[in-house]
Amino acid sequence: MRASALRFRMVDIDITQELPTVCLSDEEGGVGLIVRRAGVPVGFAMLPSAPGAEVDARELRDAAARASASHIVEAALRDELQREPPAPTTHTVSVAVCTRDRPEVLARCLASLDAVRARSAHRDTLREILVIDNAPSDDRTQKVVASFPGVRYFTEPCAGLDFARNRAWREAHGDLVAYIDDDAVVDDGWLDGLAHAIAVHPDAGAFTGLILPLRLDTEAQRLFEKRGGFRRGFRPWRYARTSPAHGPLYPAGAGIFGAGCNMVVRRDLLQTLGGFDEALDTGAPLPGGGDLDIFYRVVTHGAPLVYEPRALVFHEHRTTLRGLRRQYYTWGLGFLAFVSKTWRTEPAMRPRLSGLVRWWCADMARSIAASLRGTGHTPAHFLLGELWGGVVGLLGEYPRSRRRVAKIKQQAGTA
Amino acid sequence: MSGFRPWRVVHYHLDRAGEGLCADAGTAGALVVFWHRDTPLGQALLANDELPLTAAAMSERAAASVAPAVGWRVVGQGFEAPLPVRRPAPAGLPNFGALARLAAPLQTPALAAEHAETVSVVICTRHRPSALERCLQSLQACDEQPLEIIVVDNGVDDPATRAIAERFGVRWVAELRVGLSFARNTGILASRGSVVAFTDDDVMVHHTWITRLQAAFGDPEAAGVTGLVLPASLTTEAEWAFEHTLGGFGQGFRSLRFGPEFFSTLRPWGVPVWRIGAGACMAVRREVLSRVGGFDERLGAGTSGCSEDSELWYRMLAAGLTCLYDPAVVVHHHHRGSVHDLERQMEAYARGHVAALCVQLERHGDWGNLYRLLVAMPAYYLRLFVRDALTAWRTRTPGLLAQVRGYLMGAVYYLEHRHDGGAPAIPALRPEQP
């Protein structure tokens, strides 16, 4: 078996406690290391190793120091400076899980939410859990939800993730709606981290959190994570309508804000903004972009968006290389569908959007060149897939999607 | 000018009770400098849209801004600021034990300051009595007074300068030859301290300036010390352009050591000695000045335009000495008030820089200076020109034309003055007087 085919062991360490020695089995080719300081995530690293090897505490220490030194200092400074914790928030959160025909992964997600509800000091903040079953083909999902007492179940007949997301906030009662993907698992500290961020930034319109890999079993999952995965760093950050710290294209590059598999939006703001754009995230033809679009609209509306790494979820990435290639295509497509939509709706933003597209093309060209030279870590054909997705996104996929969505709505109306 | 809104400069003290930061609709935002126990540790530029921030949100932003400087002070290895060289040495591996033990990193006790050196402060001024007054007031407010303050008057036709010096009870020395280097050398000759510190009349020193300088010279290797120059205000477009678009004098919040390694690695390409620091905040050991000489009198404001300070660094480094940039040594600088002043300053900078490169080539025979002169600088101007052209002139680098003009003038200036060099340019210093 090739070394690259072996799975990595996920190891979660806390630097304030004694570090373990990790004995890898013959089927394990390395360690996916999550570093925390007193529970707060401060770093992540992938450490390839020989199968069956022993990764001792010293190696883990060095890797942790290399991966997370500055974030450890930042976390210590935040503790020192926030001498008195901010007044706890009185806002409540509805958690919405949108799903479609994946009862096993949904059950795992709901179990993790149950555990958080049972253990968190902020359990009062968590008002309810909703499952939106999106155009289901059978009743398996409903049965799974029935086994979790107190979880509210809804069926959304219109197929499309953003139909489901819109249904969720319309049904929810909490002040904020937290969207968690069904293939994700929330960390024990997720709710505490979110409650803290809400207390520190009571005026924020949306929150996003850190997303780490649930497992690194396959080459596809490791490749995904090597290119940055869904990670947006280990530093809490508050994004406003303008920000001199983020260059001239801000806030058009909405990818920096987070990802839809772990996002929270104020419910009244969703109402004001008209919710998610149903023409994005429609499944097969245009499966992305809805998260970027809502982040962008929240921020340009003037409500800050806060990224809080303590609100951590683990996401199970695609396991096959084929699925990963599809993912790259989807990114390119979703990203440029968002760009072409915003181009139409906001003429004032056009110079920045065209700058963004230029930057993206140059970045893709650099990545592909690096890959062909052998210095990159993503195979060139994945990147070409992403580039192709971008071209499709730019060439009218969004208007086509709008026409399709209008038809879906019409059918649902007549049904 | 069109649509420019001023920025606030906010000094945020982390050792005081946490406060939020309000928005101010009249401004574009705030440059926030984070301090702890009178030491600046970081800064953040916050647009007005990002405000207001609660006290807790400010401490999150502060933690992100000050972490490199605090890491460097408390953990050390792994947090060194990279030297401005082509391939800076990779930062070392931080000590895990120190990181794991970290609690209340700001509370780490400061080192006791050394007081071995006596400091003479030299302020050269010309026709700016009100600025000088502000500068002297700031020196008067220092925690510790220097051995002496010497005002060198480079424009004696105006009696106001002398009157102010007398009012503050500081020494007044006339220098009739117009030029900053003439004035600084006169100041050096008049001084008696073991360290000669220079500041400009458009500067206000921080009240710890003298003590921190003395502490920095507690390092026996430090032949010269430079410090952090913060903008006093950012209310005009020119001030903003100087600080933000052109990078200002900012050198960061971690110490830098410019020694033989810095000099030898960059010698073939021209050593960027101006990165060591600015004449608005610098000090040199007196014995070093006796050894390498004073300021080259062809260079500096009033003659070539500027770079008399960096040319002195060059000579010190070439002699194997080390210069230390210490961000705990702080002054506040009033940048130029108008765009016209700024352009004149940019022209003077380019002119002086070219002249200094020629002088360095002449004195040390280092061809790297010629490379910078004939390749790096023209390429830099061309790049800026192309970048502006690509935006169809929607964005323009402030003072680019003035810089090119200054570049050409600098070359002419040097050719006219190349025979003035040699011995008369560098006065031999008398040994330290009792």
What does this structure look like?
The complex is a heterodimer of chains A (415) and B (434). Chain A folds into 3 domains: 3-81, no CATH class; 93-322, Spore Coat Polysaccharide Biosynthesis Protein SpsA, Chain A; 324-414. Chain A starts with 6 loop residues before the first strand and ends with a helix. With 415 residues, chain A is α/β, with parallel strands linked by helices. In chain A, helix 2 (103-119) packs parallel to helix 3 and helix 10 (350-373) packs across helix 11 (380-414). Chain A has helices at residues 57-81, 103-119, 140-146, 161-171, 190-200, 219-226, 267-273, 290-301, 321-345, 350-373, 380-414, and strands at 7-14, 22-23, 28-37, 40-48, 54-55, 93-99, 126-134, 151-156, 176-181, 184-186, 206-213, 237-239, 262-266, 305-315. The model of chain A has no long low-confidence stretch (mean pLDDT 93). Chain B is α/β, with parallel strands linked by helices and 434 residues long. Chain B folds into 3 domains: 7-80, no CATH class; 119-339, Alpha-Beta Complex (Spore Coat Polysaccharide Biosynthesis Protein SpsA, Chain A); 341-420. Chain B contains 13 helices and 12 strands. In chain B, the strands form 2 sheets. In chain B, strands 4, 5, 6, 7, 8, 9, 10, 11 and 12 form a 9-stranded mixed beta sheet that branches. A 3-stranded mixed beta sheet of chain B has the order 1-2-3, with helices on one face. In chain B, helix 4 links the parallel strand 5 and strand 6. The longest helix of chain B is centred in the last third of the chain and has 26 residues, at 339-364. Mean pLDDT of chain B is 88; it is low at 422-426.
Summarize the structure.
The complex is a heterodimer of chains A (415) and B (434). Chain A is α/β, with parallel strands linked by helices and 415 residues long.
Keywords:
heterodimer, A: 415 residues, alpha/beta, Spore Coat Polysaccharide Biosynthesis Protein SpsA, Chain A, 3 domains, 9-stranded mixed beta sheet, 3-stranded mixed beta sheet, 11 helices, 14 strands, B: 434 residues, 12 strands, 38% helix
